[in-house]
Amino acid sequence: MWKVYKYTLLDLLRNRFAMGYAAMLLAVSTGLFLLEADNTKALITLAQVLLALAPLLTLVFTIIWYYNQYEFTVLLAVQPLHRGAIVRAQSMAVGTALLLAFLFGVGLPVAAWAPGAVGWTLLLSGLSLTAVFTALGTLVAVRNRDRAKAVGIGLITWVVLVLVYDAFLLWLMFTFSDRPIEPIVVPLAALNPIDLARMLVMLKVDLAALLGYTGAVYERFFGSTGGMLAAFAAMVLWTLLPAMAAVRRFVRKDL
User: Fold this and answer.
1) Do the beta carbons of residue 4 and residue 85 sit within 8 Å?
2) Which of the residues 10, 35, 218, 235 has an alpha carbon 20 to 30 A from that of 173?
3) Minimal CA–CA distance to 157: which of 242, 65, 70?
4) Cβ(146)–Cβ(66) under 8 Å?
5) Residue 224 region, left (φ>0) first, then alpha (ψ -120 to 50), else beta?
6) Distance of alpha carbon 229 from the chain centroid
7) Would you say 173 and 181 are in contact if contact means Cβ atoms under 8 Å apart?
8) Which residues touch 26 (CB under 8 Å, ≥6 apart)?
9) Who's near 255: CB < 8 A, 6+ residues apart?
């Protein structure tokens, strides 16, 4: 497994998309800090851009990379290697490459201009989303034989999590605002990793008050240390469950 991981990672580190992704993140992050005199405002803008863009690019790249490597994966599968080890190694290699790209492209500017709680929260949230959407991309690719269908499912997944989910949750909260729905709303927040990551950053910047009732509900739970730990635990589950499902599917798949 570790040899597959090692050589896959070495290949990915030379991948043009990975290098271009890191360069794009570095350019966007550095540009925002240079254009905005207030580093906090720059971080807020950066969070809005990255927490939507990074999941999309991670998801699409993971799916396309899997199909580009399909013949090599089949070749590995006929070797005396466990199928589960193959897909785990490949998924970990893709995730590591994208995590390093994010760490380089965003981590360096954040460390230089905003090395505080808000900056580190943004960095951890972005890294968590990268891991989550690498796992989701692997699952989508493993479950579908057709590349176009898999990419379409990936894009629909992203649109639902970025747009549709927020619209549904806001409708639910404002429709039933006169009732005690906090026990329902807080678990629903964990069902969307993008929204969860965005809220963690907003709470660190103390912007929850500007979100009215929505922000008050989130701040009541996620504003504490226990709430932050629960949020990152939800991110871990969002990573592990799709990854385990992808391994299970690949082991049973007819290549």
Assistant:
1) yes
2) 235
3) 242
4) no
5) beta
6) 17
7) yes
8) 104, 105, 106, 108, 109
9) 73, 74, 77
Give the span between the Cα atoms of 230 and 181, in whole angstroms: 19
Record the tokens describing residue 245, joined without a space: 């499902």
pLDDT confidence of residue 209: 47
Per-residue pLDDT reduced to its tens digit, 62-76: 999 999 988 888 888
Residue 180: predicted pLDDT = 67
Residues contacting residue 31 through CB under 8 Å, at least 6 positions apart = none
Write the CA distances from 222 to 72, 185, 219, 234, integer angstroms.
44, 12, 5, 12
Whose tokens are 């570095």? That residue is: 26
Angle, alpha carbons 152-158-160 (nearest 5°)? 100
Amino acid identity of residue 29, one-letter, is S
Judge whether 252 and 211 are in contact, CB under 8 Å. no
15, exposed or middle or buried, with CB in 10 Å at 0-12, 13-18, 19+? middle
Q: How big is the chain by its Cα radius of gyration, in Å?
A: 19
Ranges of residues in the chain with a pLDDT under 70 are 177, 180-183, 186, 189, 206-224, 255
**Residue 69 near residue 90, CB atoms below 8 Å:** yes
